[in-house]
Amino acid sequence: MKLSQKKALATQTVLIFGPPKSGKTELAGKLAEYFNLLWFDLENGWTTLSKLPAEWQDRIEVIAIPDTRTFPIAIETMMKVLKGAPVNICEQHGKVDCALCKKSNSPFVRVALNELGPDTIVVVDSLTQLTNSCIAYITKDKDIEYKLEYDDWGNLGKFLDFCLSHIQQASYNVVCITHESEVKMEDGKAKLVPTAGTTNFSRNTAKYFGHCVYVEVKNKKHIAASSTTYQNNLLTGSRTGAALETTEANLLRIFKPELFPADEKPVAGNTQTQGAVASNKLAELRAKMAASK
What we know:
By secondary structure, this protein is of the alpha/beta class. It has helices at about 25-30, 55, 75-80, 100-105, 125-140, 150-170, 200-205, 250-255, 275-290; strands at about 15, 35-40, 60-65, 85-90, 110, 120-125, 175-180, 180-185, 190-195, 210-220, 220-225, 235-240.
């Protein structure tokens, strides 16, 4: 098929990363203004969402997966969920087809990602905890002082690649949240990248997503950046050319760009920061004033 005949993807995959308490969860939660969110909560972060309007909260289905070092259930459940086929998850343990909850007739929630429509976004919070779950699962029979060996690191990469490769090819919308790690890139320069698994895996995690968004607090404002040239020390980018840093932080500019007037919409390929935009406007004003003299 000719490239000109290919249709634009109807769904989006977004990876949000940044330091703790920088607004990552709230940024994703605000998508509930227009979308239903299927929220897989691996680290009990749902309380942040309680600040949202009640109407928005009604559109968020929270599936709590109480993952711990001694009960690493997150990786087991997410590997089954991300295959896309229907599964039943118990509300008490976050486990697929939990025998204990079946025996006690405890409640389950049915999840089938391949049946989701474009009005729903799957949120995974977070890849950091999913990594911890992988490590705990791999070392579950080991002493707490055990250090991962070569084969263990390899298995960690296999588990995460299994999950993220399904997200990469997903027929549904996905947002994943994680933290930041500083790694040395192939050119020898240090960059902040999304945390997922080993240093090498974290360096390449963004490849599984259509958009890699960095969130931070600057001048008492929450900033979300997605252009490849936002900062040299950050791994960010968007396959559709979205530059979130030029406007108020809002993922709807990725998921529902039609909501924004053409004169406010980030132009594809426009990677100017807010400072650059302001500087250009000032230069234009000075040129006009000089011409009028």
